[in-house]
Amino acid sequence: MADEIKPFKIAIPDAGLEDLRERLRRTRFPDELEDVGNTMGTPLKDAKRLATYWAEKYDWRAAEAKLNELPHFTTVLQAEGFEPLDVHFIHVRSTRKDAIPLLFVHGWPGSFLEATKILGPLSEPSDASQPAFHVVAPSLPGYGFSQASRKPGFSADQHGEVFHKLMLRLDYEEYATQGGDWGFLITRAMGRRYAPRYIKAQHLNLDHYPQPSLMRNPLTFLRTMFSALVAGFSERDKKGFERSKWFRDEGSAYHMLQGTKPQTLGYGLTDSPVALLAWIYEKLVDWTDEYPWTEDEVCTWISIYWFSKAGPRAAHQLYYEVKHAKATDRTSTIEQLGEWQDVKVGLAHFPKDVLILPGWWAHVIGNVVLDKYHDKGGHFAAWECPDVLVGDLREMFTGGAKGAVKIP
User: Fold this and answer.
1) 143, 209, 291, 319: which is the annotated catalytic residue?
2) Residue (of 374, 347, 348, 354) closest to 285 by Cα position
3) Domain ranges of the chain
4) Does residue 313 sit in helix, strand or coil?
5) Contact 382/294 with Cβ under 8 angstroms?
6) Catalytic status, residue 319
7) Per-residue pLDDT averaged across 49-73, rounded?
8) Distance of CA 31 to the CA centre of its chain
9) Which one from 157, 181, 237, 392 is the annotated catalytic residue?
10) For the domain bounded by 1-29+37-408, which CATH number is listed?
């Protein structure tokens, strides 16, 4: 049946594991300048250490077995104008009848793996007074174990269309969304089309909203000018601007490359596991708040990309599509995703994310009901500080009617 939901198990062939180890052992490493640390990218010593561990000590089978303890599924879904895709997702249904359906959407260089730390606490809270959630965590098409579209133009709106159809197939007529990175933009694209009829609330952990302008957001613009010229921005806002400037000046070259020449980049990342490791590990370090990555965590994280159904290149295609998107009735531009939506919004700000802007700027994108600044954490909030993200979601949502939101 076309709408069938099938149980799924991760099962990488032995030949694939041996091919990976052989490629790692035959790596030709570059040289490195003296005393540069990580200013020029992944340090040589880290790349060699992790590549050796990945080849000689890392146990994928143990990681695979652990992941397979979770409820994985696949189903075939189709965005209008595109071919049907086999989409992978984790679905943890709470035992609570009043649980709120929650769609968790990851980004790059993340995967469904990011959600694994929050599944239990969200679905089965220890305190009955806390809200419970049915959690759906899909792999983006082209990521992990989801099939990729072979047609150009599969942008944020098409991802959102597929995920909305997934929620309806699971019998969730009303639901909430949570996302950072691509999850931010995809859930915003969903909000344009499906809020407030289906999507009742969005929780976001990336400050990707527009700087206020006098024409579009006069009150917020005047508040910004007052802060800049009279009262001054807070220390938190100043540090956020500094972090955002660092990202634009020193950390965003990947975005331009993946958004313009994903095919060229794909040859190296598909052929060389160390190239893939270095490309992603740099972000795991730069975009987190001194998170103590273990070798096993890094190797599992990268292995999901290496063993992905569509291959490592496919994960970059979305950058190209969003960068080149033209506004149509089926496709949104970045600017449109920052416009007002009739939806309740929760915000979480983490000091080592890649974009950190004043929370009150975001009041131009929807009805902001929760705006939380945190003292620690970075881009991968669900992985770095799962308790904090869970706490924010619990604060935002009540355990009452499906999709209800608690307004602090």
Assistant:
1) 319
2) 354
3) 1-29+37-408
4) helix
5) no
6) yes
7) 98
8) 33
9) 181
10) 3.40.50.1820
* Strand ranges across the sheet with 199-204: 5-7, 72-77, 85-92, 133-138, 100-105, 175-179, 199-204, 344-349, 367-373
- 0.85 exceeded by the pTM? yes
Annotation marks residue 379 as catalytic: yes
Catalytic residue among 91, 316, 374, 379: 379
Q: How far is CA 310 from CA 28, 133, 136, 157, in A?
A: 25, 30, 21, 20
Q: What is the predicted pLDDT for the residue at 220?
A: 65
CA 62 to chain centre: 25
Secondary structure in 3-state letters for 53-116: HHHHCCCHHHHHHHHCCCCEEEEEECCCCCCCEEEEEEEECCCCCCCEEEEEECCCCCCHHHHH
With residue 137 as reference, give the H or E element that holds it. strand 133-138
Q: Which two tokens stand for residue 3?
A: 């709408």
For residue range 345-360, what is the model confidence (pLDDT) as tens digits? 999 999 999 999 888 7
Q: How far apart are the first and last CA of the chain?
A: 45
